[in-house]
Amino acid sequence: MGGWRLIGNSRALNALASAVSSGSPARSYIFAGPERVGKAAAALRLAQALNCAADDPPCLSCQTCRRIGEAKFADVQTVTVEAATDGPAHKAISVEQIRDVEATVALAPYEGRKRVVVIDPAEEMSPGAQNAFLKTLEEPPPHVVFVLVTADADRLLETVRSRCRRIDFGLVAATEIEAGLIDRGTAAEQAAVLARLAAGRPGWALEAAARPALLAKRDEALDAARSLAEMDLAGRIDVAEKLSATFKRDRATVDETLAQWLSWWRDIVLTQSGAGDAIANLDRRDQITADAERYDRGQVTAFIQALRETRQHLRANVQSRIALDALMLRVPTMRQKRAPAANT
Ligand SMILES: [Zn+2]
Predict the structure, then answer these.
(1) Which of 40, 158, 164, 320 is a plausible cystine mate for 30, CB 3.0–4.6 Å?
(2) How big is the chain by its Cα radius of gyration, in Å?
(3) Distances in Å between the alpha carbon of 212 and those of 179, 205, 263?
(4) Could you tell me which residues come within 8 angstroms of residue 236 by beta carbon, excluding any fewer than 6 positions away?
(5) What's the CA gap between 72 and 79, in Å, rounded?
(6) How high is the pLDDT of residue 165?
(7) What is the reported pTM?
């Protein structure tokens, strides 16, 4: 299968590889699945496979493959939400950006065989942008392949979805992530820990292996998950306010924080149900075991559900402050500390 060399999701990658080798890939794809499981990396691999001249593309070592990997290849472009340069406004992918894409794809490839346009995150196209995009999707030039990368395909218009071939990506088994990390030079012991912490997301594991700062952020988020439950409501509302302010500049950080909170409380429930072996945050087993005694399982389960809903709501652009305040009302409350045992 050439050098697709990604961690996990082999069924999706096989489907893409055989579409490339058949010589008739779809004109437009949707790569759908959770964050950080390899959708964007697969889109780049697809671009490499379509443009690499090796016998079994992508070879990952020719100039074409390397330049695509470094985002320096003229015929491969990623369209994304433009960073807000100042102020809090979160922008969508605009009609103007889609018009630029239209103008570019009308031109023959400049240096490769196919122009590949990746739109990521595709669900951030405004409805106007999606409608503008429809026209191009209906009659794409023959030298163009579109890849719409999304963690929330439901937010794409049905008319957009129906014109794309959908490839589903899923969470990846910890054993596969572990093997993939070792393969790339991570020490075995660290690979085992990171693979568990990654909660199915090889993208997170690879980044954590390369950037220890990510682990520090995770530690912070877990500490916050713990202390939140010990605060009074006023304290929690303060936390909501801070998160909401962060959200306006940096959505990914807030989503990652909520993902870490989710992993924390999931570990608590696993421990409460006697499945402590399956926890993700192995390095915090002692705290998790202690906290499992302190919270009511029904409340914890309800909060896990609330965290999931909040992440969805934030993605769907509901007002962040309202969603986060509502979340704070559902934080589990610690039971009264038990009196010391009589015989001590
Ligand atoms: Zn190549």
Answers:
(1) 164
(2) 23
(3) 19, 11, 19
(4) 228, 328, 331
(5) 14
(6) 97
(7) 0.79
